[in-house]
Amino acid sequence: MGWTVAADLSQLVKAYDVRGVVPDQWDEPLAELFGAAFVRVTGADAIVTGHDMRPSSPGLSRAFARGAAAQGVDVTEIGLCSTDQLYYASGALNLPGAMFTASHNPAQYNGIKMCRAGAAPVGQDTGLVEIRELAEEWLESGAPEPTGKLGTITQRETLSDYAAHLRSLVDLTSIRPLKVVVDAGNGMGGHTVPTVFEGLPLTLVPMYFELDGTFPNHEANPLDPANIVDLQLRVREEHADLGIAFDGDADRCFVVDERGEPVSPSAITALVAARELARNGGKGIVIHNLITSWSVPEVVRENGGTPVRTRVGHSFIKAEMARAGAIFGGEHSAHYYFKDFWNADTGMLAALHVLAALGGQEGTLSALVAQYDRYVGSGEINSTVADQQDRLAAIKTAYENADGITLDTLDGLTITSTDWWFNVRPSNTEPLLRLNAEARDEATMTKVRDEVLALIRA
Fold first, then answer.
1. What family is this (predicted)?
2. Are 411 and 424 spatial neighbours (Cβ–Cβ below 8 Å)?
3. How confident is the model over 192-228, as pLDDT tens digits?
4. Is the bond preceding 23 in cis, omega lying within 30 degrees of 0?
5. Which domains does the chain have, with CATH numbers?
């Protein structure tokens, strides 16, 4: 098999997924090798694949299917879908899955998010390294010829089943009518929202629902404040009850209230945690990463649950969800994980919980979330540094002997006092340190944030 690009797989295979520029870093022949390697590593005799709306996605997805089928494996293609719709298919069909998307990255990128049967994660420690090594080995020779027959490639529609499954997990039958603006960012939310919301007492105001992997309106990354400006304006213009923005592959959702003000993902985590605990009789473990707000563990305890703190990153959260038998998990990055969704993340299910909570009472969203948003956070602040470990050591030295301070290194460095905390952690892929700080009031947060930034940027 002729190789078409000089592939450097170490740049392409990340901690949780495959991601790079098409065709410069990878293309369809390499996708075919990944398909063959994926089925070898998972030992599957059948898999499911799906893809987003990027121009390169259908071709890459089909090449991966060809590579898998050549190894004698049957492939079910669900076609255009959100990442959580692919997780649904992996869970419901009990098959390993591969989703072709680069989430919120620019148009020239594409990638693969892979999972084992039941949507169990495939990351660096759970098979991704082996997949990469096999693909590297086969770059020259091509994948080995299988001894048996070729697998089949068939198509299956899963959108309606996915929507029905989500709707079975949240009771929206008796909510009051709501007006909701949804910004799909020309991503997969434009494909899934109409079906999931169908028949609900919602007036839907769609924004950028046309599937367009060149992202003509704005990046499909709602964590960047620049990308929700259109949504905020529209919510105010429409006098809507709330706004929801999805990222490119629609696995994350970001919420703004009736004033167009962003609702922190920590407040959404706390709100959904309270609802999931109520569904489970006031018992259960809730996972949260170490840079969610103090509000999250407080609300979990107040509602009878047990909070468990973990590192940042979806493979850690999913592994901890499974290990602890947790009912729900949330991250500051607007990823929300549900036991009833195979421990996988689904922004759509979190959005339905917000709609049910808001529609189940008469007040505004800002009033509803105020009880879950108790502290003042800095948001994540990135700083480029020459030596990450040197700056972390300097911060540790500055704080470790102060009165009333606790320190831990679960993920980077977390310093906690009675009135504030901050975490500084290094990026795995860039020369950055990421700061998150929180305090009981604005003045304290500003003071702590600026002190730590001075040390980081010294």
1. Belongs to the phosphohexose mutase family.
2. no
3. 999 999 999 999 999 999 999 999 999 999 999 999 9
4. yes
5. 9-157 (3.40.120.10), 161-257 (3.40.120.10), 265-370 (3.40.120.10), 376-456 (3.30.310.50)
The answer to whether 234 and 245 have CB atoms below 8 angstroms apart is no
- Cα–Cα dist 272/15, whole Å: 28
Q: Please report the pLDDT score of residue 391 as a whole number.
A: 97
Alpha carbons 87 and 276: distance in angstroms, whole number: 20
Q: For residue range 394-404, list pLDDT tens digits in order.
A: 999 999 999 99
Number of neighbouring beta carbons within 10 Å of residue 279: 16
Distances (CA, A) of 421 to 303, 380, 408, 447, 451: 23, 13, 11, 12, 12
pTM for this model (two decimals): 0.95
The string of DSSP letters for 33-82 reads: HHHHHHHHHHT-SEEEEEE-S-TTHHHHHHHHHHHHHTTT-EEEEEEE--
Encoded tokens for 193: 């929202």
Q: Give the span between the Cα atoms of 447 and 38, in whole angstroms.
A: 49
Mean pLDDT of 292-303: 98
CA angle 242–244–246, rounded 5-degree value? 180
pLDDT digits (tens, 9 = 90+) for 37-48: 999 999 999 999
Scanning 198-338, the segments in alpha helix (DSSP H) are 229-238, 265-279, 295-302, 314-324
Give the β-pairing of 97-100 and 109-116: antiparallel
- Nearest-CA neighbor of 229 among 256, 247, 209? 256
| Residue showing tokens 């956070």 | 377
Distance CA 70, CA 61 (A): 14
Q: What does DSSP assign to residue 6?
A: -
Are the beta carbons of 52 and 21 closer than 8 angstroms? no
